[in-house]
């Protein structure tokens, strides 16, 4: 697909006839079967030649996942599931899409992929508004290659919403664009992201102004908080603008989970905290219940470690945890 994109071919669900029942890359690049007598050393050399250690793994995987979601009808939650062989399957998609593999994802990379993909989807309307505003030619956005657009969205999200170090975000996304597409694409990413960084430093990011008639205000709010226009208009009609803004802000908050230590089995919150430290899962202690811990990312690591299956802890909302007070 990297070759298709580098030739300026725009891929869309209509032109490719993509349905949600088939993975995107299986439609664009059917996997040819390899004869048994050609497997082994030759295939190992082939894989080694396509390994790229310079490209950021979490950004490469995030770009491919976003492509699969937007063009292939995949679901973000299902892509986060980690089963047997899922790592190889993930890299197979990356290789077929970008033309190379990266190093395997570690626990930190997986958390970043989940955060970047989920956040980019959640804030896509706002991110696209910024990209359009910073493009010299407004028509460039509508005709932009799908992979290039995803790379820009990732960069904008990391700079504007995650507040990652700007120099690292620019450098890594430029490298991804150059390797996966072509040098010219990297130059374009470099120019747009550097312009965004400069505007952010000057506190002059082009944010839509909420002014004009009801329709204009609804469109501005929909862009600012990345919600559908029809939803903003309906909420504003029944709830008022102030309550609508509060509701959209609540919708855009990062979801968190509560873990309850199973004290009935002698597993205390202190034991739970030690396990989370070993798994490098960030957490915060509940302010209300002594057996509960809150986590925003890393739940998959907890599941993979078998902590839920072994009954050491359970995912439970704190509102239902009063009876577990000790």
Kindly list the characteristics that best describe this protein:
transcription, RNA-binding, 4% strand, 3 domains, N-utilizing Substance Protein B Homolog, Chain A, Alpha-Beta Plaits, 4-stranded antiparallel sheet, RsmB-like_ferredoxin, transcription antitermination, single chain, NusB/RsmB/TIM44 domain-containing protein, 326 residues, disordered N terminus, mainly alpha
Mean pLDDT, all residues = 82
The helix tally amounts to 18
Tally of distinct domains: 3
Query: What would you report as the Rg, rounded to the nearest angstrom?
Result: 22 Å
How many strand units?
Answer: 4
Fourth-tier CATH superfamily name of the largest domain:
NusB-like
Largest sheet, in brief, is: 4 strands, antiparallel
The best one-word shape is globular
Elements, N to C (H/E): HHHHHHHHHHHHHHHHEHEEHE
Named CATH architecture of the largest domain: Orthogonal Bundle
| DSSP strand content | under 5%
Quaternary organisation: single chain
Here the CATH topology of the largest domain equals: N-utilizing Substance Protein B Homolog, Chain A
């Amino acid at each position: 697909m990297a070759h298709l994109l580098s030739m300026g071919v725009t891929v869309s669900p209509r032109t490719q006839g993509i349905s949600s029942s088939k993975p995107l890359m299986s439609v664009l690049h059917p996997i040819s079967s390899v004869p048994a007598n050609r497997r082994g050393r030759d295939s190992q050399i082939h894989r080694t030649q396509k390994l790229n250690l310079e490209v950021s793994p979490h950004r490469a995987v995030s770009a491919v996942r976003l492509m699969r979601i937007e063009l292939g009808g995949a679901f973000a939650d299902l892509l986060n599931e980690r089963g047997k062989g899922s790592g190889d399957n993930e890299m197979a998609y990356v290789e077929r899409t970008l033309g190379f593999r990266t190093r395997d994802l570690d626990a930190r990379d997986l958390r970043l992929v989940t955060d970047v993909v989920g956040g980019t989807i959640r804030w896509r309307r706002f991110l696209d508004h910024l990209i359009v505003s910073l493009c010299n030619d407004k028509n460039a956005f509508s005709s932009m290659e799908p992979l290039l657009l995803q790379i820009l969205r990732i960069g904008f999200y990391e700079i504007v919403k995650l507040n990652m170090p700007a120099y690292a975000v620019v450098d890594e996304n430029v490298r991804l664009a150059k390797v996966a597409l072509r040098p010219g694409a990297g130059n374009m990413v470099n120019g747009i992201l550097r312009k965004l960084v400069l505007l952010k430093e000057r506190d002059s990011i082009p944010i839509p102004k909420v002014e004009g008639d009801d329709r204009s205000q609804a469109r501005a709010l929909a862009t600012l908080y990345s919600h559908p226009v029809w939803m903003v208009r309906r909420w504003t009609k029944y709830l008022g603008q102030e309550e609508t803004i509060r509701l959209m802000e609540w919708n855009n908050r990062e979801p968190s989970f509560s873990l309850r230590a199973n004290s009935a089995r002698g597993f205390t919150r202190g034991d739970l905290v030690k396990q989370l430290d070993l798994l490098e899962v960030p957490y915060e202690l509940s302010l209300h219940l002594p057996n509960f811990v809150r986590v925003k990312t890393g739940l998959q690591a907890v599941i993979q470690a078998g902590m839920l299956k072994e009954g050491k802890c359970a995912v439970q909302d704190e509102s239902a945890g009063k009876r577990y007070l000790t």
